[in-house]
Amino acid sequence: MRVVFKTSYDRDIDLHEHGLDRGKMLGLVGLMILLPFLVNDYYLAEAANTLIWALAGMGLMIAVGHTGQVSLGHAAFLAIGAYTDAALMNAGVPFLVAFPLAGLLTGLFGAVIAIPAVRMSGIYLAIATLAVFVIVEELILLLEPITGGVSGIAAPSITLFGISFDRYGELHNFYWLILAVVILVTWGYANLMRSPTGRSFLAVRDSEVSARAMGINVTRTRALAFGLSSGVTGLAGALMGHYIGFFNYELFSVFISINLLLVVTIGGLGFIQGAFLGAVLITGMPQVIAILRDGLNASVGVDLGSIPGLDTVLFSVILILFIIFEPTGLYGRWLKIRTWFELFPLARRDMFRRHKTYLKTERMK
Amino acid sequence: MTVLSVRNLETFYGAIMALRGVSIDVKQGEIVTILGANGAGKTTLMKTIAGLMEPEKGSIEFNGNSISGHEPDRVVAEGVVLVPEGREVFPYLTIEENLRLGAHTRRDNYAEDLELVYSYFPILKERRKQSAGYLSGGQQQMLAIGRGLMARPALMMLDEPSLGLSPLLTQEIFDIISRLNAEQQVTMLLVEQNAHIALATAHTGYVLEMGRIVMGGSTEKLRASDDIQEFYLGRSEETERGQKRWKRRKTWR
Amino acid sequence: MNTDDVISFDGHSTIVSLWVARCAEYGERTCHREKKLGIWHAYSWREYYETSKKIGLALLELGVKPCEPVLILAEDRREWLYTDLGAASIGGIPAGVYTTDSAKQLAYLANDSGARVLFVEDDEQLDKWLESADQMPGIEHVIVYEREGLATFSHPKVRFYDELLALGENAPDQDRFEQALQKVRPDDPRMMIYTSGTTGAPKGAILTHRNMVYQVLAGLERFNFKETDEQLCFLPLCHVLERLVSVDAPIANGSTVNFAESPETVFENMQEVSPHTFVGVPRIWEKIYSRVTIMRSDAGPIGVRAYDWAFNTGMRYSQAENPSVGLRLANQLAQWTVLGNLRRMLGLANARRVATGGAPSSPDLIRWYGALGVPMVEAFGMTETGGIATANTVDDNHITTAGKPLPGSELKIDDNGELLIKGPGIFASYWNKPEKTAETFTSDGWLKTGDIGKIDEHGCLTITGRIKDVIITAGGKNITPTEIESSLKFSPYISDAVVIGDQRKYLTCLIMIDQENVEKFAQDRAIPFSDFASLTRAQEVLELIREVVTTVNKDFAQVEQIKDFRLIDLLLTAEDEELTPTMKLKRSFVNERHKALIDDMY
């Protein structure tokens, strides 16, 4: 455990509690940068995919985790981002312009539809977002000249300053590009949450009445949050488009929306780290199941691959188990583990025993 | 005859020890009050007895049977009813529906008890078809107590009945509490911050501080204690300068 | 070192001239830190000098003469030190009053010292003066540090701290301060410490500059201090130990003193400051140890195993004369995984060495801290010896003794078994009590400590008790109760004990139990109790204490057996008359107050 010797109030809203924290973060970033030299291309591509999902997860986290708005239709924003970016690049706009523009346009779209949507809450909002998703899906088919309709379009290869960031040709560069985007967005997100705007998101999430009493315009705040959320998701969608290469509307199904929701919920609602942990779990688990299955086949000769749908069942069962036994999410579990280590060796046994919670006011804990 | 016997109760809120070994006794037919400042552990004690929180160590015996760690619905079935802090009436149900819910664990005919509650709280009878959410604070408190009565409890636990009520209304509620105890022989465990009225109404009292009992005994003895008078009943000593800003240390002698 | 030699530290023979030099040398460097409203504020050496100068000049304006006592009644804070040095620089004698003292005690001290100026901390302490102002007519000026709660207050004799500073700042002749300072001689009083008076009324011991310069010089020779050291100040400054450790020594060594916010927050503050060197009384060390042990008993199985292994390794390593490479590595591992984290939790991560004194410490306790990786040394001293008389060092640590005398001092045991000390640290006199002063010295100038002790073959001192405390039983046997009491106090369940037996047939004992540890004991065994008094009446608790007494009895002779005991059923605080401000039971008071309990045992 580290204790902070506070000599200034700025310490209270520092991104990192102390130097060691910052060091660990830098170490992690360093490791991520070195990853292409440590693993082969297959796993590097998987890592890139995980990063894209983490980005999308962060997008959804802004809305769900930090502002308390449910969204079942975020795949729509992935789609808008992907199509906008691909279409713009296909029209000759350079990546450095098309990419942010894709995010911006998605964000604006999100903000606009948010304005009526944010007056709803709970189950009504969820249905509204689902409706938006369906509308966007239809729009994709309607705007055939731009989106290629049913057949879809290809996201062109990225070249910046003469360096190729092609997804297949220069996987290392592509990975680093994604990593750079993710780091930038994470840093921006973390800083957003310690700014007054970020705090207003949290206020609206926790108690609308108190937020209004503080002078926060709840509608505007929600719309802003939703706009930012869809914008970031749009950026993720754009990258996803480049990752897949050639895509159509089927890539952005409602299952993607639900997967995204799982990422943020199982990862840890309300924490940036939750998006990352959730993304690792959701993208990594099919891999792990496949590896285990192959291993089982190789060692014992039992071929579970012949049973159809087993992967999906296993995936679902594990997710359900997580939801039942770890309601605070992966990050919540990580915090408990970290606390245990901080107090080592004197962590109280049963320190993390879950208490019954019966009052609504207690459910936050 | 001891109805409730709590021994060495230790309850945690995560890492914080809220109760550090609390032992109290409640005898049949008496009103026992638990006094203490905010954060002393009074509500934690109530919740642990009611089954809403699980104790780490210790035992709770009700009429000779252990109820420690039981689910709250079982605890109610045994005869311990909690009138929670802040009333918690069902706002979308009518008064009568609220009261009927109070009798949920009973299998016999409770019409008589319904009339009894109405006799103690005539205003509830007047408004019995109204939604409970429209009642004032005092009326909601009456409803909550009435709802508790409907279960024909052997022990009724009241958590801060005076919360948010005007002094006049508090007096009224406590008069009714006294009457219920005297006329219906309802044994009561009362958690209160309003020490004046609690010590005037109850027979026995305990003072909780930082999760420990620091004093216990008859309410006469408590009323006479210097520390209670200064720190809970608001007697202030004037010095030469006038009002004293600082407080001496409590010694609990 | 001859008692008449000039002693100087860095060329300065008085604390105040050393102080001026240091302030000039260090300038803007941080000297003190105080925590206010959640953050630690830093104050410089320059500010130390300038504020103390203002106070000194103001005191001169108020007519304070050389060798006039100035009373300070406040908790530890930097204004205490500013007042201390301000008064000392102009030749006054700063004297502290315990904040737990009553108005009556304050009046006694005011009259005994003849002080005209009294500094009080806040409205609470001011009320003590107001209550008995007519009993201490000698006090002409009262200065209050904190204005809170006194917005509408005014009194002709009372002024506020900022007003005093303004008085000093506007004094016409600013040079008077340096002039007065120059006149201070090494044999002039540096400070007056009122002995806590376990027996009889408090006496004001005068310590000279020579005494204190010797102390810091000898201290530096014995221990290593660094300019970069961080210290935590929380023991009362009216006690000689904290004055030496937090005022005079830092002046000499240049270390930074952090003030604890309040006695209740000491542990949190220790965590934050993580001092490099720390002096505490055994009670503090026992409390820390209890906390850790209680946490260990509630810890999960992995934690418990890791804890036991780490301490086992640490114990073997610290005891070993020449540890093997394997043991060294194992200890490193233990430190890195378990003990280091524990030390950070306790605020002892940076402690190079800690000291314990003021009362006997259990050798097991000292070894435990050694195993933890925090070398602990026991020392002995009294107000009359200027603070420290003997001390162990990390390299020369004779556990179960209080160590060797400071360089330049000598010890001897006289025919009665009394410890006599000679050296440059011995105090000058008791204020206005020449007969008492004379009583305390032998004809050839040795200080009669009033303690009974032994000196072993290494020259290390062990204290076995106080002469005045010797009990003579009805059978004519001489018993030193302190030895028995110390053994009893080593048990975590016993906070303090007083052995009774004067003129009685056999020995009995009044015991004050440690609330937290006994409560834990009761909780673990589901022994019901409601308040503290009921805890002391519980059968199992009595059994527990009986066991402790029986175990202790085994180490003592037949005549020294404790035949019966009673537990004090009140939670005593420092404001009770039975306890000294350092939380020790006063024998005479206890005998009187609890006469009924005692008679009951015979």
TrEMBL record, chain A:
The keyword Nucleus does not apply. One of its GO terms (cellular component) is plasma membrane. InterPro entries: ABC_transp_permease, LivM-like. It comes from the Bacteria. CDD domains: TM_PBP1_LivM_like. The chain crosses the membrane at residues 25-45, 51-83, 95-117, 123-143, 150-168, 174-192, 223-245, 313-332. Pfam families: BPD_transp_2 (PF02653). It is found in: Cell inner membrane. The keyword Cell membrane applies. Its main location: membrane. It is a multi-pass membrane protein. Coiled coil: none annotated. One of its GO terms (molecular function) is branched-chain amino acid transmembrane transporter activity. Keywords: Cell membrane, Membrane, Transmembrane, Transmembrane helix. This is Amino acid/amide ABC transporter membrane protein 2 (HAAT family). It comes from Marinobacterium mangrovicola.
TrEMBL record, chain B:
The keyword Amino-acid biosynthesis does not apply. GO terms for biological process: L-amino acid transport. It comes from the Bacteria. Keywords: Amino-acid transport, ATP-binding, Nucleotide-binding, Transport. Residues 4-235 form the ABC transporter domain. Pfam families: ABC_tran. GO terms for molecular function: ATP binding; ATP hydrolysis activity; branched-chain amino acid transmembrane transporter activity. CDD domains: ABC_TM1139_LivF_branched (cd03224). Belongs to the ABC transporter superfamily. PANTHER family: ABC TRANSPORTER SUBSTRATE-BINDING PROTEIN, HIGH-AFFINITY BRANCHED-CHAIN AMINO ACID TRANSPORT ATP-BINDING PROTEIN LIVF. This is Amino acid/amide ABC transporter ATP-binding protein 2 (HAAT family).
From TrEMBL, chain C:
It catalyses: a long-chain fatty acid + ATP + CoA = a long-chain fatty acyl-CoA + AMP + diphosphate. Residues 22-431 form the AMP-dependent synthetase/ligase domain. GO terms for molecular function: long-chain fatty acid-CoA ligase activity. Keywords: Fatty acid metabolism, Ligase, Lipid metabolism. GO terms for cellular component: membrane. SUPFAM superfamilies: Acetyl-CoA synthetase-like. Gene3D superfamilies: 3.30.300.30, N-terminal domain of ligase-like. This is Long-chain acyl-CoA synthetase. It comes from Marinobacterium mangrovicola.
